[in-house]
Amino acid sequence: MAKHNWWQGAVIYQIYPRSFQDTNNDGIGDIPGIINRLDYIKSLGVDAIWVSPFFKSPMKDFGYDISDYRDIDPIFGNIADFDRLIEQAHQRNIKIIIDQVLSHTSDQHAWFNESRQSLINNKSDWYVWADAKQDGTAPNNWLSIFGGPAWHWEPRRKQYYLHNFLTEQPDLNFHNPEVRAHVLDNIEFWLKKGVDGFRLDAINFCFHDEKLRDNPAKPEKKREGRGFSEDNPYAFQYHYYNNTQPENLDFMKEIRTLLNQYPGTVSLGEISSEDSLATMAQYTADEDKLHMGYSFELLTDDYSARYIRETVQCLESQMLEGWPCWAFSNHDVTRVASRWSKNGVNSEQVKMLTALLASLRGSVCMYQGEELGLGEAEVNFEDLQDPYGITFWPNFKGRDGCRTPMPWTNQLNGSFSSNKPWLPLADDHLEKCISTQELSSDSILNAYREFLTWRKIYPALVTGNIEFIDTPEPILAFWRHTNAQKILCCFNLSDAVAEFKMPNALNSTPLSPLTHNKGQYQANKITLPGFSCFYAMS
Ligand code: TEU
Ligand code: CA
């Protein structure tokens, strides 16, 4: 088999640094905390870590508002800490992917500070500025994802600036080649430091429609999806014009050209658009744009076998050279252990989901705490930090419930910090803490390790093609195959026993990735206990 790139079929562990491990006891996780836990990360069997932003930031969007792209925020440490993180991770053969938030900066960034002063200055065209309509209102109907119009008035220029997210996150003007050059320079700064790749935040938001056309209205039946809230009119529009402009694709080529100078580095684009699978296929086509697209499609509430099958097939049929990257959880959505369960977190279901995710064709991102089966934490309004949740409470409670600190032990604050953590730890998270799960052979944590270790032995599961078998609910079944190897993967997505008949006899013994929740095979029939898996080689 041809040698594949390290990132193809890799398991990428996402770290939200604020909530991972605090070392100086200010209640906020930091880079030295990640370094202290590298042996734990290694023990999981993951290939890489993706660290959410740790750059200098006023933290209005907890690091996704950057005021200096080349420095570490003092809350998280300093450049020497980051250098040590790279060195220590690489020593353990763990790759490092960092977040790059390119589409917008913080309003405290020096570029914006200059740009907003006057109509004529060196950076006057670095952001998206526009005059008011005759009646003084915003230039058009574009809306911010986090609520309200996407335009904010700047009295000094007597103009509006564009922000797709918070008012404190002004949008850079990528139509300006100077902006692109400086952004690429910032990326190169980190390449020179030796990072292995980038997760490119909201990468389809870089270019806006220069004609500033109004976004079209969305029919009522289409107003749904992640973070949808009846009182957020963002869901009532298509957003063709404030993101996903055709020029974006050329910019992806500029990024790829830069990465090609640093062999082995990878780009993972976060692309969320109306038709994200088709857009992802475009963004990763022809081997001259992004390497991988991060799919949002399994961050949904729907988890029927049919939905998963159709989603993966749809992407497979469109994506050519590009490589998919799947995830069930991240720092923006309700944790999968709660989102896809009907009656509270079920350990067998969580184990099965880890196996399922890591058996799909593509790379996978697993979010910190997913290996413990953590559910979404309840966060009271008084403790809420996420501005998105504060605006839309209680219809949408924001993203804090998936951002609470890691429970390392069941001691004070889960041994995350000896000081009051920035978000409280949930009691049921302490029950699922790492030190407790380490001790039990059938814990979610140990099943996670067991599965990821087992998976590495089978190249078909890492880089093979995927071919679905037409099975009825609640069973999802597919083959993964390379020229040399063919593996059957079956999952029961329900809590009740289910069975299905294979069209042809399997002439091999079942494989055993997990000590528990296993299916059985007899006379062409596969019987799957609730939330179990079945693997076999053909
Ligand atoms: O998210 C981009 C994005 O597409 C958001 O719409 C996301 O879906 C939203 O947070 C709803 O859950 C990225 C980051 O992942 C997010 O944390 C940032 O807040 C956002 O960019 C702005 O930088
Ligand atoms: Ca700290």
TrEMBL record:
<dbReference type="InterPro" id="IPR006047">
    <property type="entry name" value="GH13_cat_dom"/>
</dbReference>
<dbReference type="GO" id="GO:0004556">
    <property type="term" value="F:alpha-amylase activity"/>
</dbReference>
<dbReference type="InterPro" id="IPR045857">
    <property type="entry name" value="O16G_dom_2"/>
</dbReference>
<keyword id="KW-0378">Hydrolase</keyword>
<dbReference type="Pfam" id="PF00128">
    <property type="entry name" value="Alpha-amylase"/>
</dbReference>
<dbReference type="InterPro" id="IPR013780">
    <property type="entry name" value="Glyco_hydro_b"/>
</dbReference>
<feature type="domain" description="Glycosyl hydrolase family 13 catalytic">
    <location>
        <begin position="14"/>
        <end position="403"/>
    </location>
</feature>
<protein>
    <submittedName>
        <fullName>Alpha-glucosidase</fullName>
    </submittedName>
</protein>
<keyword id="KW-0326">Glycosidase</keyword>
<dbReference type="GO" id="GO:0009313">
    <property type="term" value="P:oligosaccharide catabolic process"/>
</dbReference>
<dbReference type="InterPro" id="IPR017853">
    <property type="entry name" value="GH"/>
</dbReference>
<comment type="similarity">
    <text>Belongs to the glycosyl hydrolase 13 family.</text>
</comment>
